Amino acid sequence: MKKIVFFSVLVFAFCGITKAQNNGTIDAKMLNEIRSGFTLDASAKAAQNAITNAESLRDLSLNREKIGKIDHYFKYRVEVKGITDQKSSGRCWMFTSMNTIRPQAIKKFNLTSFDFSHNYNYFWDLFEKSNLFLDNIIATADQDIQDREVVNYFKSPVDDGGVWNSFFNVAKKYGLVPASVMPETKMSNKTYELTRLINEKLRGEAYKIRMMIAAKDANKDIQQAKVNALKSVYRMLALSLGVPPTEFTWRYKDADGKISELKKYTPIEFLEVVAPDFAKTEQIMIMNDPTRAYYKVYEIKNYRNVKEGINWTYLNLPNKDIKSFALASIKNNEPMYASCDVGKQHNRKAGVMDVNTYDYASLFGVDFDMDKKARILTRQSGSSHAMALIGVDVDENDVPVKWEFENSWGSSAGDKGYLTFTDAWFNEYMFRIVINKKYLNEKAIKALQSKPILLPVWDYMF
Fold first, then answer.
1. Which among 31, 70, 339, 418 is placed 20 to 30 Å from 11, CA to CA?
2. Cα(88)–Cα(184) distance, rounded to whole angstroms?
3. pLDDT given for residue 317 in this prediction
């Protein structure tokens, strides 16, 4: 009897160990195996000493072989003047969009420098986003508040973020004004507090609206509740950014020292003077997303800022085609809106981005071997910043070897405000550009005519 009991205990113990090994816990055997994989030898001690006393892992891992190998000269470069500065805001998409048409204003008025009012369009961007948010809340009022779509709306009612279509929507509706007409304020240059408070107000009003709809109270005017909420948002914006003009007078001194006559404009009229072809929508977004089929058009549901505006829509293409089209645009002196994962392998002091700029693998003795598709699907990489694509250098066969961005971080960042990146970096971390469709080939033009594949508001790429 005792032998049987003892055998049963052994079986139970063995089964327990087997389960422990398979339930995801770290047992003694596994821990010993993991520990044995690390030896604090001389090279490991040197690395440990360096890492534990370092101010920055980037400085320690800067690849010596890459330093000084990339210059900032380009065979083809768009004619641009001046560097803008978005300060502590997430308005890169707006600055970049304006930077692609700013050369037109400089040429039109024969100026040495010029900039549009980002503050003016930022006001209307936040105001229109507030309206769209409230409309989305009303449209989904019959869905549970924990529904994935509803959660996504409440997560970020408004923010600084956007893409090219966001600028297109707001500029087409409200026009543009010179920077001097509605200058930046402290709140437009440092936007966190303002957007945080607007979001608090919007979430509260949206919750009330959901409760009104759920109560089915016929005496409650849902649309009026939305208007009242927008009145509060307008007040907050006006007090923080100023009141946007409906018309203005403006004059300038040109490159020859001549002062123009004082002239009156509406913002829409000014846009039409500076960029008469802006509203024709010949500009289209092309993107490299290896997680999805190429030569297909994709549209992100509700990714816009203006209710009646266009959603974020793009044609997915291989990098080879994107580069060919971009090269043609630069050769024709036309800058492009572009966006990328700017934080990856970026040497800020040198203003250079290249693969393996930072050799973290050698520093830690571990591999970092994800490709672009894997980085996207695991959220390790995604587009984080927009800049104007303005330059390309080529080899003897006219094949690109490196490219240039016009950034919006001020002239002290990078190479006097510009960033140089290699063609290899383009493959890994460039995501999308906005380009005139006249530069696309026949296959891409044909693909544009297909019905867009609708992606959800919470899609991993966006």
1. 31
2. 12
3. 98
